[in-house]
Design a protein that fits this description.
Mac-2 Binding Protein; 17 strands; 3 domains; single chain; 11% helix; 4 helices; mainly beta; disordered N terminus
């Protein structure tokens, strides 16, 4: 369902008001948005503006013919500004589709896969609530990380990303670990009215990266796991400096080479901007889903043994 609120930004055609084609209102007319440089970090600004959860995916979809669109540069989009402040009228065959989580988000973290957990009530007030550490365990964390399209939980610790903020979730989650969404889990019948300082759930989900098909684990095609699937990485301006970030993350020493390999046809890739990675952002936060025939191959020096 499209967003029926007053904001001049909406997502339409998806499974909820937090997923679908991004549209911005122009007078009385809604127009889709395009730009080939959007990342999950950019999409996160829209998710917040719509009071949805975390950004889960962003993709450029090709349509059959050109149509009027808003060209909104990802470099312009910032948390403190409305997306509308960046619009420029144009024509394109491509439109952006976004998916935000509906009812969970991680805030104040170092990446989109880390932060203090907040849950949105399905009651009439639709407020976001912190969760107390005593009401949340490893199986619950597995469900949240999966719902956000991240890897398995790696750190679960109270107050890691800030103290409890009112309002607070009042029931204990009882997930089996297999559910696709946190609010699909059973919860306790009893309610909690207080949560001790330092006990707000802080969660870090892993963001798996690997090199495959090379002579060692430190060489090969760069792949990133997203929403449970491994996909190769593509982008034309990667340098040794960018590759060095991946080599360090894999504990593989320094970067030796980075090259782009062309495949016989388009395939689903993770389009990751080099300048975003070099700015210190997580690989996943710098990405966008796309179909492209080029993939990145990296070679790292490999871990050297100490004398």
């Amino acid at each position: 369902l499209p967003c029926l609120c007053s904001e001049p930004v909406r997502l339409v055609g998806g499974n909820s008001r937090c997923a679908g084609t991004l549209e911005v209102k122009d007078g009385e007319e809604w127009k889709p948005v395009d730009d080939f440089e959007w990342t999950l970090k950019t999409a996160a600004v829209v998710c917040r503006e719509l009071d949805c959860g975390s950004a889960v995916s962003v993709r450029q979809r090709e349509e059959s013919s050109k149509r009027p669109i808003w060209w909104i540069s990802s470099f312009c989009v910032q948390p403190e500004f409305s997306v509308r402040a960046c619009e420029r009228s144009s024509y394109s065959k491509n439109v952006l589709t976004l998916t935000c989580s509906d009812s969970v988000r991680l805030v104040n973290g170092t990446s989109l896969c880390s932060g203090r957990l907040e849950v949105k009530s399905d009651q009439s007030d639709q407020s976001w609530s912190s969760v107390c550490e005593a009401d949340f365990d490893q199986q619950d964390a597995e469900v949240v990380c999966r719902e956000l399209g991240c890897g398995a939980p790696s750190v679960l610790q109270g107050a890691l990303y800030g103290e409890v903020e009112a309002p607070m979730w009042t029931k204990e989650f009882q997930c089996g670990g297999h559910e696709s969404a946190l609010l699909d889990c059973r919860s306790s019948g009893s309610t909690r009215n207080t949560c001790s300082p330092g006990k707000a759930v802080g969660l870090t989900c892993s963001e798996p990266v690997r090199l495959v098909g090379g002579d060692s684990r430190c060489a090969g095609t760069l792949e990133l796991k997203h929403q449970g699937q491994w996909k190769p990485v593509s982008y034309s301006d990667w340098s040794l400096k960018t590759a060095a970030v991946v080599c360090r993350e894999l504990d593989c020493g320094s970067a030796v080479s980075v090259r782009e390999r062309e495949e016989s046809s388009d395939r689903s890739v993770w389009w990751i901007r080099s300048n975003c990675v070099q700015s210190g952002s997580a690989l996943r936060d710098c990405g966008m889903s796309a179909d492209f025939p080029f993939i990145l191959n990296l070679t790292c020096l490999g871990k050297t043994s100490s004398s």
